[in-house]
Design brief:
The protein has 253 residues and is mainly alpha-helical. It has helices at residues 2-18, 20-23, 30-62, 69-95, 100-130, 138-165, 170-179, 183-193, 195-198, 202-226, 232-252.
């Protein structure tokens, strides 16, 4: 039951973000958004190291493999995968440029596709926890899920708000925004169900998830948190998120 709650938390973040279509006339408060984006980035950076890469290295070492090799390969593959995913969505965006409805639809599609690897990242760490992997705790997995949920708050809003601008009803815009995050618990659940099959390659999957998250942090979260005035709020968010995640992982690990 605790694991089910854990994998649903990122979806809850998307749902809460989509609810802003009822609360905001235009968009989320920029200061709050900067802090949330920075906090999510800090959590994901710390989680990538303590919850994913270090356990991957420890597992490889215990199995007699070259300790750093699975972590390095998985990390690179995670980044390359999301680069290709971004290229695909950019290509689709150029093909449909100029059609407002299609652009709104494409935004939903892009966010939905982007959410699947994040769901897998949550699933991988919970799978590692269920398998008794050294260095992976429930508290650490839960903190990662919360960090991704905070990142999903503005994502849910950026899906539902443009739909409202395109004269879609608030309820429909909310439902579409909410459903853009449903792939996260699906991806997490599928990963956990396949735990027995993925255990041999778990070091690669853990570091793959780390690479995917670091890509999201450097490509999206930090640049968005640094935009405009008072960029220090994003930096403070990163600091707080990183320290909290580090403390949780080390103290409760």
């Amino acid at each position: 039951m605790d694991v089910i709650i854990g994998i649903l938390i990122p979806f809850l973040g998307t749902t809460l973000g989509a609810l802003f279509v009822y609360l905001l006339k235009n968009e989320m408060n920029k200061k709050l958004e900067k802090v949330l984006l920075g906090f999510a980035a800090g959590v994901m950076i710390a989680a990538s190291v303590w919850s994913l890469i270090i356990p991957a290295i420890e597992m490889a070492s215990e199995s007699g493999s070259i300790a750093f090799l699975p972590a390095a390969i998985g990390f690179i593959l995670g980044i390359v995968f999301l680069i290709l995913l971004d290229k695909f969505t950019d290509h689709m965006n150029k093909k449909r440029k100029g059609n407002k409805l299609n652009k709104a639809t494409l935004l939903v599609l892009a966010v939905t596709i982007h959410n699947f690897p994040e769901g897998m990242a949550v699933g991988v760490i919970f799978a590692g926890f269920l398998a008794g992997t050294p260095g992976i705790t429930y508290a650490g997995a839960l903190a990662l899920a919360i960090g991704i949920a905070l990142q999903n708050l503005p994502e849910g809003a950026i899906v539902s708000m443009p739909l409202k601008s395109d004269k879609v009803s608030k309820t429909k815009a909310f439902l579409i925004g909410m459903l853009s995050g449903i792939v996260e618990p699906i991806g997490a659940g599928l990963t956990i169900l396949l735990t027995s099959f993925i255990i041999p390659i778990l070091p690669y999957l853990l570091s793959f998830a780390a690479g995917a998250m670091i890509y999201v942090v450097t490509r999206e979260l930090i640049p968005e948190a640094e935009e405009g005035k008072k960029s220090y709020l994003g930096v403070l968010g990163v600091m707080i998120g990183f320290v909290i995640m580090m403390v949780l992982d080390v103290a409760l690990g």
